[in-house]
Design a protein that fits this description.
Length: 257
């Protein structure tokens, strides 16, 4: 059966209405044809509306698809950037972990070393010439508490030990005169004690009648001959900054090993 398009049906219907009913073409038949034409037109209009609606939905979906596609491209690029950054952070983290492990190894090795240095420092002060004894003992006592405190970092302990060593080393570059009681020739006397760096200690009684030198090997004060009184007195005066510095001869003697 041949099908006619909506336009063809509509065209035939108009022609029939204009030309009038053909012979044998009753009003009832015309009405049926008209109804069919109306139904076809209504169906066509409904189909067109549905098609337009689908076209709008399609256009919206295409736009949404394009938007989602752009978002996906941005997310892919962002993901690649994040992966690069994550890799860089991972490398930094691995380096930090390696540094931390190295620092822990240094700390494990450093603490015994510092204790050994501290013990050597303590022995040196105990066996050294008796100058600034209270000051040096107090410094060591504070350092002992510092070394035993677990809350103090290895770096700070290292700084304190090196500081104490530096102070002891500086004694070798200076001269000083202090007043102290010493045991000389079996008697305890008050004397001016002249320190010549870390090399030697000389004593001069306040009446300038007796002089002595500290014998490190024997750990005692030894009297000097009268001929050395003038040199020791000059050294004391220079140590007190009462006399200009000049070359003098002092009986240093043999240094202890």
């Amino acid at each position: 059966m041949k099908h006619f398009s909506l336009k063809q049906i509509f065209f035939f219907s108009i022609c029939l209405l204009l030309l009038g009913p053909a012979p044998g073409f009753s009003a009832q038949t015309a009405e049926k044809v008209k109804k069919k034409v109306d139904t076809s037109i209504a169906t066509r209009q409904k189909t067109q509306k549905q098609q337009d609606k689908w076209e709008q939905e399609k256009s919206g979906l295409v736009g949404e698809y394009e938007q989602l596609k752009q978002q996906q491209e941005l997310l892919v690029a962002a993901n690649a950037t994040l992966k690069t950054e994550a890799h860089a952070h991972l490398v930094v983290l691995e380096e930090l972990v390696a540094q931390k492990e190295a620092n822990l190894n240094i700390q494990r090795e450093m603490l015994p070393f510092l204790k050994e240095v501290y013990t050597s420092l303590e022995e040196m002060v105990a066996n050294d010439a008796p100058f600034l004894q209270e000051e040096r003992k107090n410094r060591l006592q504070k350092l002992t508490l510092f070394m035993d405190d677990v809350e103090i970092s290895i770096a700070e302990k290292y700084r304190k030990v090196m500081e104490a060593l530096f102070v002891e080393a500086e004694y070798g570059n200076t001269i000083e005169v202090t007043q102290d009681k010493i045991s000389l020739s079996g008697s305890e006397v008050l004397a001016d004690v002249f320190r010549l760096g870390r090399i030697s200690l000389f004593a001069l009684t306040l009446d300038h009648q007796t002089a002595g030198v500290f014998n490190v090997a024997e750990n005692r004060w030894t009297p000097l001959e009268k001929k050395h009184l003038q040199s020791v007195a000059a050294a004391v005066e220079m140590g007190k900054k009462r006399r200009t510095v000049e070359v003098i001869s002092l009986p240093i003697g043999q240094l202890a090993n």
